[in-house]
């Protein structure tokens, strides 16, 4: 087996060259090559992190905007409801007021009319006694040729009282 | 060629020969070292050219460079913890050097430097020296408590301490022999079956038909060897990380 031929001078030289080549490779990789890879990886990691952060910030912003929009909508709706309610109330009030005023005026007119009617009837009733008394006296005069105005007045009174008009 | 003489010579592929003419011969620069140099150049090129674009969205070569970086980084940090970050360049160099050595050896006419026990033991010795120096510098004399676990009965000390010392000293041996044996076995098998293909192919009319059998075995073996090449590099790196964990945390 040539690998176990340690008398071969090439064997020692192989190890010496191995140490030299391995040492140089280690130096080159650790000094120049690997920091370069690390730099790129770190840069990428930072960039991804930054992008994620920006995306998160944008999402938070959008969420805030949506919340503000929702708040504004709710507020506007509430305002509109309040305005409708107020308008309804004032309209109802006004209608009630108006109908009340109308009712009052109508009641007033009814009362005035009733008073006029009562006055007319009273005056009519007042005239009735006089007319019936004069009529009765005139009839009596024509029939009997005498006038008994006291008895006629008493009879008219009685008759009127009997009819409930006294 | 072995096949021409009718014998199977599976071991001459591991023979060291000087390259680069008289200069190489003078400094003992063998084809093994040339392959080491090639591997080191390829590793450096992979990282340097791969990362030259410094793209946020990586291309193919950059993805490969980053994947190898993150694979070893996760391995080291996963085993050793955050203290392991300063050992990452070492484990990365080790992993890539072994991986490229194993993979380059699978190419025709290439030499597998990880099939030399001297090379694998040299790498394991670097690991052994590193873990011992790290443990001593971090823990001072408390490091020697590693060989006698706390809470063990004192009368067991004469048994436990030699066992622990032997197991500690056998780390570089097992580390190097595992890689060496896997590589040698794989390449010997490939060579033996390749020789079968040539020998059987020469057997007249039915030769080519019979030779298909060892050829298909060899095709399967190459796929298997690719797996072994990666796996052994991974095992080397993860065992180094485990030893570093022991050195940093002492148990």
UniProtKB/TrEMBL annotation, chain A:
Pfam families: ATP-synt_B
Recorded superkingdom: Bacteria
Chief location bin: membrane
Transmembrane segments: 12-35
Membrane topology: Single-pass membrane protein
Entry coiled-coil feature ranges: 38-72, 96-123
InterPro entries assigned to the protein according to its UniProt record, in alphabetical order: ATP_synth_b/b'su_bac/chlpt, ATP_synthase_B_chain
Keywords (A to Z) from UniProt: ATP synthesis, Cell membrane, CF(0), Coiled coil, Hydrogen ion transport, Ion transport, Membrane, Transmembrane, Transmembrane helix, Transport
UniProt subcellular location: Cell membrane; Endomembrane system
Function: F(1)F(0) ATP synthase produces ATP from ADP in the presence of a proton or sodium gradient. F-type ATPases consist of two structural domains, F(1) containing the extramembraneous catalytic core and F(0) containing the membrane proton channel, linked together by a central stalk and a peripheral stalk. During catalysis, ATP synthesis in the catalytic domain of F(1) is coupled via a rotary mechanism of the central stalk subunits to proton translocation.
Assembly with partners or alone: F-type ATPases have 2 components, F(1) - the catalytic core - and F(0) - the membrane proton channel. F(1) has five subunits: alpha(3), beta(3), gamma(1), delta(1), epsilon(1). F(0) has three main subunits: a(1), b(2) and c(10-14). The alpha and beta chains form an alternating ring which encloses part of the gamma chain. F(1) is attached to F(0) by a central stalk formed by the gamma and epsilon chains, while a peripheral stalk is formed by the delta and b chains.
Family (UniProt): Belongs to the ATPase B chain family.
Protein name stated in the entry: ATP synthase subunit b
Originating species: Falsiroseomonas tokyonensis
Automatic annotation (TrEMBL), chain B:
CDD domains referenced in this protein's UniProt entry, alphabetically: ATP-synt_Fo_a_6
UniProt keyword Transport, yes or no: yes
Subcellular location field: Cell membrane; Membrane
TM ranges: 37-57, 87-111, 118-140, 152-169, 190-213, 219-244
Key words, A-Z: ATP synthesis, Cell membrane, CF(0), Hydrogen ion transport, Ion transport, Membrane, Transmembrane, Transmembrane helix, Transport
Membrane topology of this protein: Multi-pass membrane protein
Functional description taken from the UniProt entry: Key component of the proton channel; it plays a direct role in the translocation of protons across the membrane.
PANTHER family: ATP SYNTHASE SUBUNIT A (PTHR11410)
Family the UniProt entry places it in: Belongs to the ATPase A chain family.
HAMAP family (alphabetical): ATP_synth_a_bact (MF_01393)
Protein name: ATP synthase subunit a
Organism: Falsiroseomonas tokyonensis
């Amino acid at each position: 087996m040539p690998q176990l031929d340690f008398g071969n001078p090439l064997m020692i030289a192989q190890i010496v060259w191995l140490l030299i080549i391995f040492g140089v490779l280690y130096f080159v990789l650790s000094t120049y090559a690997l920091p370069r890879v690390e730099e790129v990886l770190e840069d990428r990691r930072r960039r991804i992190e930054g992008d994620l952060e920006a995306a998160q910030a944008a999402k938070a912003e959008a969420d805030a905007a949506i919340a503000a929009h929702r708040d504004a909508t709710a507020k506007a709706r509430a305002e509109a409801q309040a305005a409708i309610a107020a308008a309804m109330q004032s309209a109802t009030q006004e209608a009630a007021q108006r109908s009340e005023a109308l009712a009052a005026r109508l009641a007033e007119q009814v009362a005035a009319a009733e008073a006029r009617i009562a006055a007319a009837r009273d005056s009519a009733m007042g005239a009735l006694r006089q007319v019936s008394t004069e009529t009765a006296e005139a009839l009596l005069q024509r029939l009997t040729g005498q006038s008994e105005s006291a008895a006629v007045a008493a009879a008219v009174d009685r008759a009127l009282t009997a009819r409930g008009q006294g | 060629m072995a096949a021409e003489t009718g014998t199977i010579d599976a071991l001459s592929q591991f023979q060291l020969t000087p390259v680069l003419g008289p200069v190489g011969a003078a400094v003992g620069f063998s084809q093994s070292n040339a392959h080491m140099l090639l591997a080191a150049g390829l590793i450096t090129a992979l990282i340097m050219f791969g990362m030259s674009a410094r793209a946020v969205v990586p291309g193919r070569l950059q993805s490969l460079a980053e994947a190898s970086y993150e694979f070893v980084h996760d391995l080291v940090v996963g085993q050793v913890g955050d203290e392991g970050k300063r050992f990452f360049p070492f484990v990365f160099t080790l992993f890539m050097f072994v991986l490229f050595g194993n993979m380059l050896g699978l190419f025709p006419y290439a030499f597998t430097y990880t099939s030399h026990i001297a090379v694998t033991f040299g790498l394991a010795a670097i690991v052994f020296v590193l873990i011992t120096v790290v443990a001593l510098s971090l823990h001072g004399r408390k490091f020697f408590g590693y060989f006698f676990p706390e809470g063990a009965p004192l009368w067991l000390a004469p048994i436990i301490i030699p066992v622990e010392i032997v197991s500690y000293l056998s780390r570089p041996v097992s580390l190097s022999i595992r890689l060496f044996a896997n590589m040698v076995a794989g390449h010997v098998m490939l060579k033996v079956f390749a020789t079968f293909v040539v020998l059987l192919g020469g057997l007249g009319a039915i030769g080519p038909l019979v030779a298909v059998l060892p050829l298909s075995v060899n095709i399967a073996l190459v796929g298997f060897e690719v797996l072994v090449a990666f796996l052994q590099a991974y095992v080397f790196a993860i065992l180094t990380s485990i030893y570093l964990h022991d050195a940093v945390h002492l148990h």
